[in-house]
Amino acid sequence: MLDKLELLKKNVADRDLGNFGIEDIAYVKSVTIGGQKLHAIHAADGTPLTVVSERDLAFATVRQHDMSPASVH
């Protein structure tokens, strides 16, 4: 028998994840553009937000906008 948490997981649509705080996460990914190593910041839903030159700057930028950074490899 499924417990309440498992039942909730089965019934939560992707669009509902925002209700659980997912809008507070941004992902930082290393990218190469024009031969330069840069760091792209994406919203949790994959929407590109910006690109910056340094990884530390990317994490600081995310935090400055009241989000939690997560690294993507």
What descriptive keywords fit this protein?
73 residues; alpha+beta; 4 strands; elongated
Report the end-to-end length measured between terminal Cα atoms.
37 Å
Q: Biggest sheet, in brief?
A: 4 strands, mixed
Number of strands: 4
Residue-averaged pLDDT: 82
The total count of helices amounts to: 2
Shape: elongated
Q: In percent, how helical is the residue content?
A: 10-25%
Structural category = alpha+beta
Taking all Cα atoms into account, the compactness measure Rg is: 16 Å
The ordered string of helix (H) and strand (E) elements is HEEEHE
Identify low-pLDDT runs. none
Characterize this entry briefly.
By secondary structure, this protein is α+β, with helices and mostly antiparallel strands. Helices cover 25% and strands 37% of the residues.
